[in-house]
Write a structure and sequence with these properties.
18% helix, globular, 5 helices, six-stranded mixed sheet, 222 residues, 15 strands, five-stranded mixed sheet, alpha/beta
């Protein structure tokens, strides 16, 4: 049995997290650890990771972590404390993990793709995973935000996740799907054989109030 700590969307507030364990087996960060994605952000984040007693530390970059899209080799050098996954799969102590940073296009952020290109990215996800990590949620799952609807003159819940990702996860059936990005969607939801975990640590006002997510997983492959 392995203990997993999963966090996301810390935006340089990693030292202020609610209920962050100092130790464990695997730490997973599902993106947006930085603010403006400077080298200073990366160096500070790496120093914080070094202070934690985890056997393995896994990071998937997010749309705020621009340095990994523009200068990936340099960014990896500045983050030696973590294993960074960009459309990659690893096995850690009998747990198979795949990480991908991509999201549907909005604004001018990093790791954005059009719908057709995203579908190709998701097709790379293996079918026999224990843990899938993505930045953005799949559509319909812990992905709602309140958006203004003019003809109703009111704010209504809107699904912001990726439909192609939802279809792929329903087919691949990982045991856990970890993501963040939509701060308002923090929580857990089980669908069929997959437990979906939105682990965004900051709320919609960028306050570090959401509890850190910790769970145990059987490492049956070991």
């Amino acid at each position: 049995m392995l203990w997993i700590t999963a966090i996301s969307d810390t935006h340089t507030m990693h030292r202020d997290l609610n209920g962050m364990p100092d130790s464990g087996d695997i730490l997973i960060h599902a993106g947006d650890f930085s603010g403006h994605s400077t080298e200073e952000d990366l160096i500070d984040f790496n120093a914080w990771l070094a202070s934690l007693d985890y056997k393995h530390k896994i990071v998937v970059p997010g749309n705020h972590d621009r340095i990994f899209e523009r200068h990936e080799q340099r960014a990896r050098i500045l983050l030696p404390q973590a294993t960074v996954l960009i459309d990659q799969c690893i096995e850690v102590e009998g747990v198979k993990i795949y990480g991908s940073p991509w999201t549907p296009r909005f604004g001018h952020w990093s790791f954005m793709q059009a719908a057709a290109e995203l579908k190709e990215k998701w097709e790379q996800i293996p079918n026999d995973l224990d843990i899938l990590i993505t930045k953005r949620p799949p559509k319909y799952v812990l992905d709602e935000v309140l958006d203004y609807v003019p003809h109703l003159n009111s704010y209504e819940p809107v699904h912001t996740g990726c439909a192609h990702l939802f279809n792929k996860v329903m087919h691949a059936k990982p045991k856990y799907h970890i993501f963040g990005h939509i701060h308002e969607g923090f929580g857990a939801k089980e669908i069929q054989d997959t437990l979906f975990l939105n682990v965004a640590c900051l709320n919609e006002r960028y306050q570090p109030v959401n509890s850190v997510t910790v769970f145990a997983i059987e490492n049956t492959r070991k």
